[in-house]
Amino acid sequence: MTTLGDRFDPRRNSFDVLRLSFALLVAIDHGIGIRTGEQWRWGLSTLGDFGLDGFFILSGFLITRSFLTLESFPRFVWHRFLRIAPGFWVCLLVTTFVVAPLVLQRRFVRVVGVGRGGGSGRSGPGVGVVDARCTRRACWSGRRLGRG
């Protein structure tokens, strides 16, 4: 006879496939929204809503199972930290040292100090940044950046 523990054995279930499917629903919804500016709707819900709700419900079930298995709150917190922290730091470092420089290189010729708006004393978003399309002082005055 099969027990409930056998049915929910972590090595023999499809929870990872379900979580991947829910995450893909969210990614597809974002992709459609970015590409077309529209979202598929069923009533008041979108495709991403179904994916997010399902992902969080299933993840909550798995995290609760982890907590009940460890039987100690400090140990549970330590295990969660060890699972989350490495991915967080890798993501932070890749974003800082790979993604951000690539975005800046693509968008701007160079970035100079904020507040150096061509001697005008202005500061704020866009001031002190040379647009890649700018070749003359007109860029510093704000005319090419849509402010003049």
UniProtKB/TrEMBL annotation:
Any matching Pfam family: Acyl_transf_3
GO MF: acyltransferase activity, transferring groups other than amino-acyl groups
Recorded coiled-coil stretches: none
InterPro entries recorded: Acyl_transf_3_dom
Transmembrane spans: 17-34, 46-64, 84-104
UniProtKB keywords: Acyltransferase, Membrane, Transferase, Transmembrane, Transmembrane helix
Domain Acyltransferase: 13-108
Protein name: Acyltransferase family protein
Species annotation: Pseudonocardia ammonioxydans
Taxonomic lineage of the native organism: Bacteria, Bacillati, Actinomycetota, Actinomycetes, Pseudonocardiales
